[in-house]
Amino acid sequence: RFPPWPVVNMLTQSETKELFRRADAVCFDVDSTVIKEEGIDELAKFCGVGDAVTEMTRKAMGGSMTFKTALKERLSIIRCSREQVNKLITDHPPQLTPGIRELVERLHQRNIKVFLISGGFRCIVEHVATQLNIPLHHVYANRLKFYFNGEYAGFDESQPTAESGGKGKVISMLKEQHGFKTVVMIGDGATDLEACPPANAFVGFGGNVVRQQVKEKSSWYITSFEELLKELDKI
Questions:
Q1: Which one of 24, 29, 41, 51 is the catalytic residue?
Q2: pLDDT digits over 131-146, tens only?
Q3: Could you tell me which of 182, 213, 188 has the C-alpha nearest to residue 203?
Q4: Is pLDDT above 50 for 207?
Q5: Over the range 90-104, which residues count as b (16 or more CB within 10 Å of their CB) and which as e?
Q6: First-to-last CA distance in the chain?
Q7: Which of 233, 6, 225, 20 is nearest to 132 (CA)?
Q8: Is 41 one of the catalytic residues?
Q9: Which family does the record claim for this protein (predicted)?
Q10: Domain 13-37+94-233, CATH number (from 1.20.1250.20, 1.10.3720.10, 3.30.200.20, 3.40.50.1000)
């Protein structure tokens, strides 16, 4: 039987660290990586349907259903209005993971490009990018659609981030557009791990939630951004 997971180039931990130190670009997942929570779960809680959606997020992150199916099903339960999304961001702004602000600042100082690639929602991810001084054109995420009266109208299914394998598509595109030789993906979930390749290296992040399959398949698995800062100090 074929394994359900894509085969990742198994680098050693020291090779992964070396690639991180000489990266042209670093791509971060957002939910449970750059921020402490899962944006879609927070939106569901805010709209009063938290439990049903949390269970489906768990299945999606565990790789047991396609990402687009999970996204569509969760959003059809939430059916948030534009007003609810705006109120969520105002009343419960996303909480940054400790150390991420310093890490992004350090990467920028070293002229390493930083991108946010998220299966979450652009309106929330842009808010996070602004806090971290990441340009908005470095944000790749899903777009919610609303009718003119603000009611939920679906999501933009043409975005690469709406698909399983979408993060890898974004990384391939970034390499092509910018000529990056070395791109590192950092994240907590199945969709992050499967972006390597085309990412040259993957760093698993368990600082907010540990997903066992990701931990087992990561040659370098960290629980604090402090570990990445220490690597940059070696340059």
A1: 29
A2: 999 999 999 999 999 9
A3: 188
A4: yes
A5: eeeebeebeebeebb
A6: 43
A7: 225
A8: no
A9: Belongs to the HAD-like hydrolase superfamily. SerB family.
A10: 3.40.50.1000
